[in-house]
Amino acid sequence: MTKRPLHAVLLRDAVADADQLAGPLAKALDGTGPAILPLDATLPAPRLRQLTDAIAPGAGVAEDTAVVIATSGSTGEPKGVELSAAALRHSARASLARLGLSAAAGGGAGGWLCCLPVTHVAGLQVLVRSLLSSSERTVAPTLTATALSESGCSYVSVVPTQLVRLLDEPGGAAALAQFAAVLVGGAAAAAGLLDRARAAGVRVVTTYGMSETCGGCVYDGVPLDGVTVRAAGDGLLRISGPVLMNRYRGGPDLGDEFVTSDLGYVRDGRVVVRGRADDVINTGGHKVVPGEVAAVLESCPGVLEVVVVGRADPEWGQRVTAVVVPADPADPPSLELLRTHVSERLPRYACPSEVVLTRAIPVLASGKPDLASLKAAGTLREREHFPALSVN
Question: Which residues contact 206 (CB under 8 A, 6 or more apart)?
Fold first, then answer.
């Protein structure tokens, strides 16, 4: 039985208007206001209508729901993830504690820089942390080295794409190095990118989580306090603890454990994520985990960024496709080089049979690679000047 009203909060700029959400969020957390559904008002009208029809059709929500986050990943029908105030607060406090901060007044000394859309859970949690710690908050609609330097903040959450661009920008690495911690999540960060950041003095903290877990619940491979991660026989990671969502909008209560779509394992208390199960490439009867191939290609000479996807192939079912941003556009890595690099480290069937060169990896608003676009044959080829190469 629904008891609590649900109000959609439309934001004209999901980053710049972060402060507009802070008031309704505070009231949603302490119970003095309705539950909220933050939405990007600049979405195409049909998409915005689809979200509101699916998630906020007029009925309220259960009393234990404070925030509903709209999520659909890169494909699929939209879902409303119902999060309780208790789960959001536990996540924020555990995050602050892991960073050596307190949730007491002033505990977030130095403050938080908000540069992620607050319509997504990572940006929303920046607001929750600043509210719980009574710390200063600065909003940076455009994340630049200057914005970092002038923010006066000590903590920031970014996605890998933002980290890459800041390290490439003059003065960006130095500006990042001034922060007490730079949380990197939303998508897998390349080992080479993290090494590069740390070599520049940036105190990087990798995070793993999803909307269903109130955002990042594993920091640098170690679950936050109260969170348990395990892998079952199917290889999928399962998460339990007080950060879990209540339910999907219109669905049954979740229960004690959330089964992710991520393949991985836990070794010596550390969580290792191999990649998403629904992204596994089936080529000629062999199963290839794209994230593992991408991790190998990240160390290949001439590769600046890379995402690996499976594309339809009439003979093999799917072909392993490497979408590469070359370090030097004038001298991009060849398909032969990529295949040789992978074959020395992984089974030969994991070698890419196609490479698409692009100037930038397309990403969603959440910062995750736009896999639907990457899997669509021809999309990047039509847009970019680089040729696409494939094995004959």
Answer: 184, 185, 189, 194, 219, 220, 221
Q: Which residues contact 143 (CB under 8 A, 6 or more apart)?
A: 115, 158, 162, 165, 166
Within a 10 A sphere around the Cβ of 285, how many other Cβ atoms? 8
Which residue matches tokens 């234990």? 64
263: closest CA among 291, 283, 284? 291
User: Which tokens is 336 given?
Assistant: 């032969």
CA 4 from centre of chain: 29
Residue-wise pLDDT tens digits, 23-68: 999 999 999 999 999 999 988 888 888 888 888 877 789 999 999 9
Q: Where are the alpha helices (DSSP H) in the chain?
A: 18-30, 45-55, 85-98, 121-133, 145-151, 160-168, 172-177, 191-199, 290-297, 335-343, 371-375, 379-383
DSSP label at residue 136: -
- For residues 369 and 363, the answer to whether their CB atoms sit within 8 Å is yes
202-255 pLDDT, tens per residue? 999 999 999 999 999 999 999 999 999 999 999 999 999 999 999 999 899 999
